[in-house]
Structures are given as C-alpha cells and as structure tokens.
Amino acid sequence: MDTQAQLSEILNILKKQQEYPGDEITLDSFMQSWFIGMKSSIMPNTYNKYHYLYRLHLKPYFGGHPLTKIDIDMIQELVALKANQLASSVVREIFSCVLKQAMRSAEGRKLIPSNPCTFVKLPQVKQDHGRAMTDEEICRMMETSRKSWSWIAFPILIYTGMRRGELLALEWSDINFEKNEIRINKSWVREKGKSGGTLNDPKAQSFRVIKVPEALMNLLRRCRVNEGKGRTYVVSQLRSDKRVSPSNFEKMFNRWKKKAGISKEVHIHTTRHTYCTLGQEAGADAFDLIQQTGHSDPRMLYKVYFHARTSEAQEKVSDRIGDRLESILSA
Question: What is the pLDDT at residue 305?
Fold first, then answer.
C-alpha cells in the first residue's frame, strides 16, 4: 500500500471515530426532548418564555440542522442579526439560557463533541434595576386605585412588597387578623394558552410568613366586610368569586397608573422596589427585609421555609414601613 493510500485510510478511520449521534439528530428533534426534561425543573413562566424564544428566534434558522453542523460562526452570525432587532437582554436569554443550555445537555450526552456556544460573544446588557415610586406617585396611585372594585390590591403591594402572583393567589384564610400576619404559600401566574392563569408553589425562599402594619390590617378588615364578604380571594373578579388573571390585573394597574399621571416606567414590580427602598430609608436591616419579601440573595445564604415563624425584627420592618407610608399619605 503506497503512502497516499495509507494516509487516506487513516483519515477515514479518524473520521469514523469522530462521528457523533448528533450527525443524525436535528436541533428541533433534540429540543423537543430537552424541553420535556426541563419542564419539571423550572418555573412555568420561565418554561413558556424559553419555549417561545426557541420557536420564534432559533427554530427558523437552526431547527432543521443536525446538532453537529451548528458551529460557532453560524451562531455568532445569528447573534449579530438578533442584536440589531432585539434588546440585548433578550438576545442573551435566547443564546445563553436556551441554546447554550440545550447544547450543554447535548454535549453531556455525547451527542456532539463540544458546545459551540461556549466561545460565542453576546452583547453586553446595560443594567437597569428600575426605580422606586416617589412619595407623590404613591399618593396619586392610592387615590386613583381607591375607586376600583379591586382597590385593596395597591395597598397590599405597597405595604408588603408582595409579588403580583402572590397577591393574586392570596386568600382570606391566608391572613391572620389577630397576629397581623400573612402567609405566602402559592402564586397565581400567567400560562401561555390559558385565559386565566395557573396556581403554582412559589420558589423555596418565597414560602414565608410576613408581618403587616396595622394601617394595612385596617384596610383589609374593611375590604373583608365589604368587597370580600362571602369571597375566597382577597383580589377577586367583580361578578364572581374567582381569581383575577395576571394579564387583566396588569391592564387594571396600567389604567390606574394612566389616570394618576404616572410614567410608563413604573410597573407592578416597581411596588416591590418601593417597599425595599422605604424599608432602607426607615433604617430596616437588609436581612430582615429579605425575610419579609422572600427575595433570593445567595450572599445571604438564607431561605425562608413554609413553617417559618415571623420574628420581632420583621415586625419592626413592617411597623417602620407602615409609619413611613402613613407619613407620606397624610402629608
């Protein structure tokens, strides 16, 4: 056998050794199984978002390609295209949270030799942590929302820092009127394809019992006697004892905001920013605020469990923020 023939045979052997199952598996086929595996490990909202991002931004370009044929250059080219169309944060979610994680799974299963996303450069995201509402905005929003059937929603949000899903899932039975406490143990969130929502457990650190200032408890007592009479849910639909859908609540919140003349940058989650800011201004300890809000901060290495009891420190946080809000609203 001459040298050329030997070299050809060696190359053929190496080629066969380098073959991977991903040569015969398209990205779309793999993603179907990947999403099935992911469904039980991430929150429904996150699952729906990732599924949407894949279908809209990745499938049209790479869906029919074998896994091993999707290389760095192809991905980088698509990143550049999407960077001109979408916000940098969305581009990073598409390629870092969806494609990169899926390809890591494919690599781990030895379907491909390596993850092609590893060295792809993604656009930098300008950090925008939002802002807190001003004293004047709080007053205007309180006044505007007061005229609505679901008027109690804004006071709850601003006095507790509760998340939207936690608010919409809240039942009267979750409120301890004797101890001024609210138990957070579920979340009502939007689910793609459903007109209402779906009931989920909150994240582990969000199971908690929070202290509530007397000012809010008085509002809750009034609401229970009037709008809440015979109702299960604290924030319920006008004509039936059913939870308000997340999308409808967002529309209602935006109507309040528009009538109050508040800028578009303020949204439902801004009330959570505001609660924490008020707590900081009132001298509340950050650790106690985490207990109240169920916020996840790995530096604190702290999680609040379902059976956790509220502490005296939490009560101080609640009272301080309640006093601060009362001074704002009575000014």
Answer: 20
Q: Tally the domains of the chain.
A: 2
Assess if residue 127 is contained within a domain.
no
91 and 231 housed in the same domain? no
The answer on 270 and 228 residing in a single domain is: yes
- The residue-averaged pLDDT of 166-177 equals 96
Task: Specify the CATH number for the domain of residue 88.
Answer: 1.10.150
Looking at the fold, whether 150 and 93 belong to one and the same domain comes out as: no
Range of the domain at 25: 19-108
In a domain, 118, yes or no: no
Mean per-residue pLDDT for 71-98? 93
Q: Is residue 232 part of a domain?
A: yes
**How far, in Å, CA of 145 to CA of 310, rounded?**
30
Position 1 in a domain: no
Q: Are 65 and 27 in contact (CB under 8 A)?
A: yes
**What pLDDT is stored for residue 195 in this prediction?**
64
Which of the listed ranges 114-128, 245-259, 313-327 does the model predict with the highest average pLDDT?
245-259
Q: pTM for the complete prediction?
A: 0.64
Per-residue pLDDT at 279:
84
329's tokens: 């609203």
